[in-house]
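Protocol step 4 of 6: structure prediction from sequence.
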Amino acid sequence: MNSGIRGTFAAALFVLSILGFDSAAATAIERSVSPCGQFIIYGGDAAWRGAVSALVERTKANLLALLQRRDQWVTATVINLQSRAPNLPEIPSAALRFSQTGSGLKLQLDLAISREINSAATERELLRAILLEMIYRNQTAIAPGDVYVEPPSWLVEGLLALTPNRDPASLINALAVSERVTPLDEFLRQRPELLDPAGRLLYRAYSLALVQLLIESDGGHARLGRYIDNLSFTSNDLLRDLEAAFPQLAGNDEKIWKSKIAEIKSSGRADLLTFSQTAEKLADLLRTKFPSADGRDTSVSLEDLYQKKPNATQRLALQKFSQKLMLLAAHANPVLRSVVQDYQQLAAQLALGKNRAVTARLAELRILRGKLSARMNEVDDYLNWFEATQLKTQSGLFEDYLNTANATVPSPAHRKDAYSAYLDAMEAQF
C-alpha cells in the first residue's frame, strides 16, 4: 500500500513538472528590437527598452557620421537589462561579453538599470560594443578560447568627445591647465581605470585631441575606419600600429602631437581672471560643504573633512570638488594658479583616502593666500597713488565716466540781475 502511494505521488509530480515546463516555455520573454535590427534588448519594461534603443541608435549614427560610412552590421548584439539588486552591490553596472559559439559570434552587453544609472557610462559601453562588432565583423575563423582585442580606451573616449551637442570646454580647460604634454607613446599605453579623476579628465582631453588629429589628416575618416577594422591584428607596439594606419605620423609623431595640443589650447583659451576674481572664486569653492560621515549633520567643511579618511560618499564629492578646482585653474590669474593647483592635488589625494600631512599643507596654503592678497593690495595702492600724483598726462581711463557725469549735471542758467552782477564782479576781482 505504501509503495503504491509513493508511485502515484511520484507520477503526479512528474506530470506537474511537465506542465510547469510547458507553461514556462509558452511564456514569451519580453524584448525589443532597435529600428536598425542590430540590437535585441531584453529585460526591463517598455520604457527602459525604448530609452536604451534610442540611445544605442543615436550612438551608432554619430559614429557612422564621423567615419563617413554606411551601416553594414553583421553580428546582432544582445542587450540584457537587469535591475540592480540591493543585496548584490558588487554586480558591475555594465559587463560586455564576447564569445564564439557553435552558431557564430555572440555579443552581449549586460546593463544594470536603476534611478542612479550613469548615462555617460552607459553610452561608453554601448559604443564599445558597436566598435567590437566592427572589429570582428569579417573575422569568421575565430576559434573558441581565442583572446579578443577590445577597442582602445582613447578611441572610445575621443569618439564620444566629438559627438554632436557635447561641449568640450572642460576638456580644453584640462589641457590648458597641464603645462607638460604627455608623449604620444606614453599616452597610448595609459590605462584610464588606474588614474584619479583629474587624470581621467586629462586622458579624455588627450583622446579628443588624438581622434581629432587623425580625422583631420589626409583621408582621415576612411583611414580611421580601416584602423578600426584591422584592430584585431594589432601588435603590442601601439604607436607603430597607429603610424602604419596614418603614415603622416611616422617619424614626426611627437612634433605633430605637440602642435595639435598647442592648437587646441589656443583655440579654447579665454581671458584670464584678475587676481581679485580668482581669489573670490577660490574662496567660494573652499566654502563648499561636504556630506558628513554619520549622516546626522547636514554637511561638514573642508578642514573638518581632512581630519579623518572620508567614506565613499565623501570621496565622490571630493572628486567633483577636484574637477571644479581644475577648471578654475585653467582661467586663474597666474599669481594664484599654483595655489589653486595645490588645492586640487590635495582634494584628489584625499579622494584616494590619503590624508597624511594634509592639515599642515592646508595651513601653509592659507598663510600663502593671505600674504599674496596683502602684497597685491599694496601693489594696487601704489599704482593708484602713482596714477593720481605722478603722471604728467591724463591716462584717459576715466574720460568716459567724467563725460557722462558732466552730461548728467546741467549747468545752471547764468543770472543777470544786479545782485548776480555784483557777485560776478567781486569774484573776478578777488
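Step 5 (inspection) to follow. Residues 251 and 296 are 61 Å apart (CA to CA).
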